């Protein structure tokens, strides 16, 4: 007979309060039932559940009940366990509709593909007794890029001239990582600014969360490209600039065509707000605007334009 959670924790985690001890789970299908103090058993490893994970977006916490922060009882290390949760929903981009689907098995495939590549989060998959692919993820040793940008306390001009060139260089490397996936027929699937981390030791950027895929008939990798566009807008602007936050003088010069095709309240024609932004860089942002007539088809095209903009930034002004 398998030991109870109480017996197991008494042996392997005697520091854990007995009043919070829960149950053992070898089948993670009913993930809503699994909570703090429970133990998930995967092959010969045991994971003590500490809490549900949550994403903080738009100033609000969005709980993810299928994602558990855990301690491995064998190693004492911390891991994030992603349990199986299926969902599908449409996303509208201008006049186009994209169907997004959560696919745990796709994320498993990506984790195997990027093993040992620090441009991507690391982890492995172990199947539970119900054949659910449970992804055991390493904690990324770093901080979200958008949080680091938002924490800067300086005028935009100083940021753009003193910090942005290095940010752009690192972002081009991150785009090259996505191109590497695309060249192998894979998509990231959920490219957002909160899914890009800065590694503490190297400063390199690291992508997380690969469990979405999408059906975009107009462009097989199109949603990834629009995601990269959203991030570069944020990085150039040192944050998001919305029509609601414009000053009266700025509202006069901004119209609908200056805004994002994905988020019509976000200004992408940032040269109108910051005239010192070079045309070569601003033209990249405009490829993601409501007025755009041509979009990027490949990550390589975006990287080429970003590289030219980087080179222009390094040239002295007359």
UniProtKB/TrEMBL annotation:
Organism encoding this protein: Solidesulfovibrio aerotolerans
Record protein name field: Serine/threonine protein kinase
Gene Ontology MF term list: protein serine/threonine kinase activity
The keyword Transferase belongs to this UniProt entry's keyword annotation: yes
UniProt keyword terms in alphabetical order: Kinase, Serine/threonine-protein kinase, Transferase
């Amino acid at each position: 007979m398998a030991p109870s959670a109480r017996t197991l924790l008494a042996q392997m985690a005697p520091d854990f309060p007995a009043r919070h001890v829960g149950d053992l789970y070898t089948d993670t299908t009913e993930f809503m039932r699994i909570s703090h103090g429970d133990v998930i058993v995967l092959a010969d490893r045991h994971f003590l559940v500490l809490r549900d994970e949550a994403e903080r977006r738009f100033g609000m916490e969005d709980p993810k009940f299928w994602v558990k922060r855990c301690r491995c009882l064998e190693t004492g290390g911390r891991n994030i366990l992603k349990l199986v949760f299926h969902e599908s929903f449409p996303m509208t981009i201008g006049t186009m509709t994209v169907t997004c689907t959560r696919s745990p098995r796709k994320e498993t495939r990506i984790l195997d593909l990027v093993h040992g590549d620090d441009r991507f989060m690391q982890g492995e998959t172990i199947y539970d007794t119900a054949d659910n692919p449970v992804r055991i993820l390493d904690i990324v040793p770093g901080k979200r890029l958008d949080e680091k940008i938002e924490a800067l306390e300086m005028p935009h001009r100083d940021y753009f001239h003193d910090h942005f060139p290095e940010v752009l260089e690192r972002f081009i490397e991150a785009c090259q990582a996505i191109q590497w996936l695309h060249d192998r027929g894979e998509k990231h699937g959920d490219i957002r600014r909160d899914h890009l981390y800065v590694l503490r030791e190297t400063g390199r950027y690291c992508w997380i969360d690969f469990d979405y895929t999408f059906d975009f008939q107009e462009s097989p990798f199109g949603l990834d490209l629009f995601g990269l566009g959203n991030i570069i807008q944020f990085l150039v602007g040192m944050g998001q600039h919305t029509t609601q936050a414009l000053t009266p003088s700025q509202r006069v010069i901004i119209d609908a065509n200056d805004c994002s095709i994905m988020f019509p309240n976000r200004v992408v024609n940032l040269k109108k707000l910051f005239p010192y932004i070079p045309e070569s860089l601003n033209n990249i942002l405009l490829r993601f605007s409501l007025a755009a007539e041509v979009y990027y088809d490949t990550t390589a095209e975006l990287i080429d334009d970003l590289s030219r903009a980087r080179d222009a930034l390094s040239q002295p002004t007359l």
